[in-house]
Amino acid sequence: MGQKPQRDLLRTGILTALLTMLVFVVDLQIPLGVSGGVPYVAVVLLGWWFPRKRHIFYLAAVGSALTIAGYYFSPEGGIPWMVVTNRFLALLAIWVTAGLLNLAKAATERVNRANGNLEERVEKRTRQLANEVKEHRQAEAALRESETRLSEAQRIAGLGNWTWNIESDEEWWSAEIYRIFELEPHKFEVSFESFLNRVHPDDRQGLEEAVTRAREKGTAYSIDFRIVLADGTVKTVHEQAEMTRDKASQAVLMIGTIQDITQRKESEARAQSMITAIESLSECVALYDADDRLVFCNAPYRELNHAVPGTLEPGVPFMDHLRAILAKDLVPNAAGREEAWLEERMERHRNPKGPTEISRQDDQWFLASEKRLEDGGYVLLLTDITDMKRAENERREALDQAEKASRAKSEFLATMSHELRTPLNAITGFAEVIGGQYFGPLGDRKYQEYAEDIQASGHHLLDLINDVLDLSAIEAGRFPLDKENLDIREVAEECSRSIADMAERKQISYKIDIPDDIPPCHADRRSMKQILLNLLSNAVKFTPEGGNISLGATAVNGIFTIHVTDTGKGIPTEKLSRLTNPFTRAEPNPHRSQDGAGLGLAIVDSLLKLHGGGMEIESGPEKGTTVTIELPSVIH
Q: Looking at the domain assignment, is residue 149 inside a domain?
């Protein structure tokens, strides 16, 4: 309660107390019968100014008590029954007044409350109306701002919206559609027909069919088509729309959007051209994103990794791809060390420091180059260097062969110097003895032996020169072959007679194991004799006294096979691959080796190749040697 109501209540209370005391004092001064206590009603009337209705009854009770007190304490006077009646009427007046005053005050309070509620409602409604007006204005402002933002968003996206009332054939376009078509709203009458006239002639039918289907079936459609502007410029737009139907399922309204996708289409075309160009490259190209996931790879890359097609899908991590090719054994130099190779490969991938060579299946080699992009992704380029590696290997092998040939040449010169010097020394020495008649007249038996030695040395020298000339002719492609159907048993026996004396001197057992029904061998007779003589001569030379030599032949499945086996000291395994090289011998020191310049097996190998055949040598220290030759068993 405020200070002012408190002060008013205090003043009213004081006034009531003074008035009550005054009325009581007056009542005590007037004899009974003169006054009936009615003045106490004035005390009750003061209750009107008290804030609560119960104060009226408090005052009525006080007035009643004072009326009764006045009856007892006022001076005597009047008729007794009239005095009592007056006092009773005074009490009745007090309480009737209190009751009426209470009713009046209650009515007044109801009126005041009603007025207060009305004012409150009016004030509340006024505030509501003010808020509604404010909210309406805010909504209008927000709507205008939203429309502005929508218009700006449509302008940025090149996206406009439209509605078409099918019943009235009225169409509405947003401002962006006018901008897309480069038209002025007040100069262009919008209709479906005028819109259709702007569509490229080649795309018009497809659009009409899409609209017709939407109207008939009530379905949405989405389509790309071209439009032609007034100046002839062609744009590509994307349109999508939905149909609204009435209760009778009749199409009444179509709502849709049109977006200018010209730049996107041009970008897609450029991207497709780039993809086509990358696809046509012979190099393997793969593009990975910043998360190491595949974005794109071209045809050569897919062909290289055709065994792991699951890792060629967009989104597959590079690590998964590496593990897949390791699991398929597509990286030969990673065999047995897969995890180490994977760690090394990922380190090069994370920190590329230049191109590196990698090997793949089928003896393929690639030069791998990786380049990081601005967005964190990277491009992997694999250039096929298989031919270059092969050429490098061939060059290395050729260089190695040249070095071997150079060494063989040096060995040959050392051997030839010995081989040529030995018979020439014998020839000149014996000729000097004969010419000087050191043993008397020429008829002496010694001179005949020396003449035989001169003849043997001359034959040896001639054979050596013939071998050199034959090998040179073969390598020069000037060695003619006169092929005929040969009885290989007959040729073998003829060659065995040529080495019989040498084998007999060393007490070597010699055996021919050729079936009587073996078919003829189509070959050059001179070449076959030279081949067999070289093989048999080598067998006799390197077989110790008391050893064994055998020659056998078979013809199976179109292949004619001849093998010569001896029980000699054998040849070290590491030297077998070099025995067919010219001027190469099992024992490189000519002063310690058996007779020969190391040309025999080279001639055999070359003659066999001329016939389309080949040779294989099996040997080992103290295990003897078996030489097997194969020829096509063709009979003419």
A: no
616 lies in some domain: yes
Residue 318 structure tokens: 């590079």
Three-state SS at 552: strand
Same-domain status, 330 and 261: no
Backbone angles phi, psi at 454, to 5 degrees: -60, -40
pLDDT, tens digit, 9 for 90 and up, residues 78-109: 667 666 777 777 777 778 777 777 787 777 77
Which of these, 174, 246, 241, lies nearest to 212 by C-alpha position?
Answer: 241
Residues 391-446 pLDDT 10s: 888 888 888 887 877 776 666 656 655 665 566 666 666 566 566 666 656 666 66
pTM: 0.42
Compute the residue count for the chain: 636
DSSP H helices, 198-335, are: 201-217, 262-280, 299-304, 318-327
Q: Verify that 200 and 239 share a domain, yes or no.
A: yes
Structure token digits, residue 14: 């004081």
User: Does 465 share its domain with 593?
Assistant: yes
376 shares a domain with 440: no
Task: Extract the tokens encoding 428.
Answer: 């000149």
Mean pLDDT of 280-303: 90
Of the candidates 358, 384, 410, which is a domain's last residue?
A: 384
* Residue 76 · residue 31 · CB < 8 Å: yes
Q: What is the distance between the alpha carbons of residues 334 and 360, in angstroms, rounded to a whole number?
A: 10
Cα–Cα distance measured from residue 586 to residue 575, given in angstroms and rounded to the nearest whole number: 7
Asked if 324 contacts 314 with a C-beta cutoff of 8 angstroms, the reply is no
User: Which whole number is the average pLDDT over 504-524?
Assistant: 90
Q: Which residues pair with 615 in a beta bridge?
A: 629
Residues 592 and 481 in one domain: yes
Report the C-alpha gap between 330 and 301 in whole angstroms.
13
Question: CA–CA separation, 443 vs 553, rounded Å?
Answer: 50
Give the integer Cα–Cα distance in Å for 626 and 615.
11
Domain count for the chain: 4
Separation CA 548–CA 507 (nearest Å): 9
Q: Of 359, 384, 409, which closes a domain? A: 384
312, HSE (Cβ side, Cα atoms, 13 Å)? 16
Q: How far is CA 137 from CA 133, 140, 145, 224, in A?
A: 6, 5, 12, 41
- Beta partners for 626? 565, 618
CB atoms inside a 10 Å sphere around CB 508: 22
Q: Provide the token pair at 527.
A: 């070449």
* Residues 574, 448 within the same domain: yes
**Residues spanned by the domain of 430:** 426-632
Cβ proximity of 606 and 475 under 8 Å: yes
Among residues 523, 535, 552, 533, which one has the least CA distance to residue 601? 535
| Tokens 């070099």 found at | 578
In this structure, the answer to whether residues 597 and 517 fall within a common structural domain is yes
Cα–Cα distance, 76 to 63 (Å, whole number):
21
494 pLDDT exceeds 80? yes
